[in-house]
Amino acid sequence: MKDLWLTAKLDIVESLRARWFAIYSLVFGGLVALLFVFGLTESRVLGFIGLSRLLVTYIQLCMAILPIFVLITTVRSVAGDREAGVFEYLLSLPVGLAAWFWGKILGRYLVIFLPVFAAMGGAVLWALVRGIEVPWGMFVYYTALLAVMGWCFLGIGMLVSALARSTDVAQGMAFMIWLTLLLFLDLILLGVMIQGQVRPEVVVGIALANPLQVFRTAALALFDPQLIVLGPSAYVILDTFGVAGYKLFALAYPAAIGALCAGAGYLFFRRGDLP
């Protein structure tokens, strides 16, 4: 356990000094803060019943920015250390492979979520100063959504990093995964629905296998509980899960994907040729 925390600490220190962390904090942290600032401002007028175009835009931006930052920065963990010859020194130290791998994950997750948590806290502080009522339930749930989505793509990134033999290959794989989940899968499903050859229930089920789609739908449900913006798909989702059931699913499913991918990544890492 001591080695795990030491590895996590070293990864945190290294990440905080990296240029990508400063960019990530400014870009994503600022977007999350703006989302809640504008959302809290509108709540005094709309009571969080309406779904504004502004909030939808920021939800889409969160979907695009968080996964790609997590993937690109995480896939360098194993592949980058392999190229740099870190494992040759690791094998000569009294640090187990499990402690190194899971310590990397722990440290990277804390670094990834730190700007998100800071942005959330800043938005709440701004609302309290301005005398705006804070919808704590919505605030906590949206924070949890971002936390599990970060964990999901962290696990995927560690799996890719363990499989790839170089950072270039790892980053290419990460970019294709992000692009597929963000854009290509939706376009394919849209084409299938237009042709009308597959039942809507099947299409919605395939769409909800995408953790980004799960996040988007759950985030939209915070401001539009009936999911009117999704059209007929909303009936399938609500009839299958219900509102409360889908909220639980949106947290459990991405977390499970992240855990499974991280576990698979560790198995490949342990059995692989380290140097």
Mean pLDDT: 77
Rounded to an integer in angstroms, the radius of gyration calculated over CA atoms is 20 Å
In what range is the share of β-strand residues? under 5%
> How can the largest sheet be summarized?
none
Helix content: over 70%
How far apart, in Å, are the first and last alpha carbons?
24 Å
Count the E strands. 0
Structural notes for this entry:
The structure is a single chain. With 275 residues, the protein is an all-alpha fold. The chain has one domain (2-271). The protein has helices at 2-17, 19-46, 53-74, 76-84, 86-90, 97-130, 136-163, 167-195, 200-207, 211-223, 233-241, 243-271. Helix 2 (19-46) packs antiparallel against helix 3 (53-74) and helix 10 packs antiparallel against helix 12 (243-271). The longest helix has 34 residues, at 97-130. The radius of gyration is 20 Å and the shape is globular.
Short structural summary:
It is built from twelve helices and no strands. The chain is an all-alpha fold and 275 residues long. The radius of gyration is 20 Å and the shape is globular.
Task: Pick out its properties.
mainly alpha; globular; 275 residues
